Amino acid sequence: MCGLVGYIGDKQAQPILINCLTRLEYRGYDSCGIAVSSNEIRVFKDAVRVKVLEKAMPRLSGTLGIGHTRWATHGEPSQVNAHPHCDCPGRIAVVHNGVINNFQTLRQKLTKKGHRFVSGTDTEVLPHLIEEYYDGNLEASVARALKEVEGSYAILVLAVGEPKLVIARRDSPIVVGLGDRENYIASDVPAILDYTSRVLYLEDDDIGVVTASGVRVKNNSSEVRRKEHKISWTVEDAQKGGYEHFMLKEIHEQPKVIRDTIGGYAAEGEPVVELAATGEYELGDVLILACGTSYHAALIGKYLIEELTRTPVRTELASEFNYCGRTSAENVSIVITQSGETADALKAIKRLRGEGCRVIVITNVVGSTASRIADRVIYTRAGPEISVAATKSFIAQLMALYWLTLPYSKIDTRRLDNLITELRQLPGKVQQVLDQESVIADCARQLAKFDDVFFIGRGINCPVALEGALKLKEVSYIHAEGYAAGELKHGPFALLGKDAPVVAVVARDHTYEAMLTNIKEVKARHSPVTAIIGEGDGEVEELVDTIVTVPRVEPIFSPVVNAVAIQLLAYYAARERGCPIDFPRNLAKSVTVE
Ligand code: AGP
Description:
Layout: E1 3-8, H1 13-24, E2 31-37, E3 41-46, H2 50-56, E4 64-70, E5 85-86, E6 92-97, H3 103-112, H4 125-133, H5 138-146, E7 153-159, E8 165-170, E9 175-178, E10 183-186, E11 198-201, E12 206-210, E13 215-219, E14 222-224, E15 228-230, H6 246-252, H7 254-265, E16 286-290, H8 292-309, E17 313-317, H9 318-321, E18 332-337, H10 343-354, E19 359-363, H11 369-373, E20 376-379, H12 392-405, H13 413-434, H14 437-447, E21 452-457, H15 462-476, E22 479-484, E23 502-505, H16 512-524, E24 529-534, H17 538-543, E25 546-550, H18 558-576
Parallel strand pairs: 16-17, 16-18, 18-19, 19-20, 21-22, 21-23, 23-24, 24-25
Antiparallel strand pairs: 1-4, 1-10, 2-3, 2-4, 5-6, 6-7, 7-8, 8-12, 9-10, 9-11, 11-15, 12-13, 13-14
2-deoxy-2-amino glucitol-6-phosphate binds next to helix 8.
């Protein structure tokens, strides 16, 4: 939620900040702004996208600056609510990610002391509070101010006449990019990939001082060293590479993502690594927590683990788990989070660890907060995912779950070997789905005419139906519901009819016959049906209006090929409707507030 950037060095800050903000827009894009400091602090901000701001902006001279792209929490998107925020004389400027929970109390207190507020944001209390304690030592005044702040924050602060940036974090990420006589700060690595691949991450309650020549970090008033990491992502990874949208590029990257993710766990011919064999874990009762698309991966993980290992699995939305009374009794807790920064997921990890559970995190971002607070990390290798809609990270999460589960499966060695062979063939199968792009695009153009769409599936493909609905509504703004196929008749039937099409995700497994029955029930209520089916499934083809064929695979792998089909459906429906596909309204890539 929200992206922040900072620069200090010997170059002009303005173009660098603008470039970094453009790369960071997926974190929030309802307004943006920058502040550049030389003899004075000059701020330029508005409720517009970065490109528009850049065109309207005067030249702001200075080699030190901060910038922000916003996803509103407190106060509507407007010029006055956009960041940076300043104290009244304009001596201190702040950009902030997170939420200040006690901002009302602080605001009242500061108002009584004569501070004048102009915005409706929680953030504005920060420059005023820092100003209140400022006596020429910016770092000390930030530390003093933050003692009074309750909530989450990643902040960058600059003050007139101070050749430094003060940075601080609690529950919201900050990465420092290290350069040669210059340094960069951002909430996310893709923002600074153009300039450096050497980074260090701040930990909770760190306060740092960044100058052109170095970084000093303190935690609880003691000097600390934060390890330098080398980022393997390239600038090209974070660019569109000729595709119209990041979402389409990321969908097309999925064969490679599968190869890279599996290849990262074991080269072909190497044995499947068993966590139990390393003495780390016995796969007993399992708890899997996640949000959004990652939660749908978790649900697929549940079907998979229960099917192959007969181990009971509980899945919960991380946001709900944080408020349930029950303490966790499971042996293995897995938290799935692409970004590794989702506030609800982080809170769940902290709660689990507080209860003495060991937590395995599946994440795509090396060095993310989740990766640093987990007991064990399983990385996916999707590369940077820029489009707000998660696609390749979802497929990579499925690969991690297959890899985690297969060694524990209670199936004979021959079947296991066959499954591993087929897992390694998935890039080719996914490519076959991508080769159907124009057929899927035609179906999507039909779907785009409707305002309500249902997705149905059963068993391991039920979560694919949920994901289909999420993807469609997120990028095309078509109202969509994902349902377990057997549940439609328990209520949603009332909505079926010729204006309510149904997308049925059909797998040739033990759910097949029941799915056929469900499709017939839907057809009897006159809803047009699009079915996603395995090649050569003539029986379903006869029943439905439109088909999307995907290659036949082992049923446990069917969510992979089916998911790629529903991603393309959503993408092309959104394109047909002229939606801003990579940056859907009201959304942001990583949700770092509760
Ligand atoms: C899906 O397209 C969304 N972007 C969203 O549901 C996302 O999956 C969710 O916010 C969880 O994010 P995470 O995996 O980074 O924790």
